[in-house]
Design goal:
The protein is an alpha/beta fold and 157 residues long. The structure holds zinc ion.
Length: 157
């Protein structure tokens, strides 16, 4: 399966609220973090939202995820058979659309980008020839409550 064929990004209401709260708390700086989960049936399904420190030189107009968080998240995701689906960040005084700067930095195809501005949240996927900033296409965002299918803490080592 190619990630660029993604049809939707699936989040829980809690995950969405957590990201929006972070954007608000970080204002007037940009917040950022990682989306961890897996691709199923063409949908990027987020299991966890991992906040990261924004280590950009100018965090009021850019974001750079703390590389230590990124490395640790990659490792943990791999162990669980998951992946880093993408990342989120906020535009404190902009709109929830990728900027030219975001487009320049979208090195990997198939990554999901969530962008927040005030109470708005929108998702995009990085593709070679996207019609948004030349690098993205909008990805429908589905916010649904989780189905209780897994028992927590199975105790297996
Ligand atoms: Zn941006």
């Amino acid at each position: 399966m190619k990630d660029v064929d993604l049809t939707a990004l699936v989040l829980t209401p809690d995950q969405q609220a957590k990201m929006l709260a972070e954007a608000q708390a970080a204002h007037p700086l940009e917040c950022c973090g990682l989306l961890v989960g897996r691709v199923q049936d063409g949908e990027a399904r987020v299991r966890d939202v991992l906040p990261a420190a924004n280590v950009a030189d100018a965090p009021e107009r850019a974001f750079e995820i703390d590389p230590r968080t990124l490395i640790q998240a990659h490792r943990n995701a791999r162990e669980r058979g998951e992946a880093i689906l993408g990342w989120y960040h906020s535009h404190p005084s902009g709109v929830a659309v990728p900027s030219a700067c975001d487009a320049e930095r979208a090195a990997e195809n198939g990554k999901v980008w969530i962008i927040m501005a005030q109470a708005d949240m929108a998702a995009y996927v990085a593709v070679e020839q996207g019609h948004v900033a030349g690098r993205f296409r909008p990805l429908p965002l589905r916010v649904i409550s989780p189905v209780k299918s897994e028992e927590a803490g199975d105790g297996n080592g």
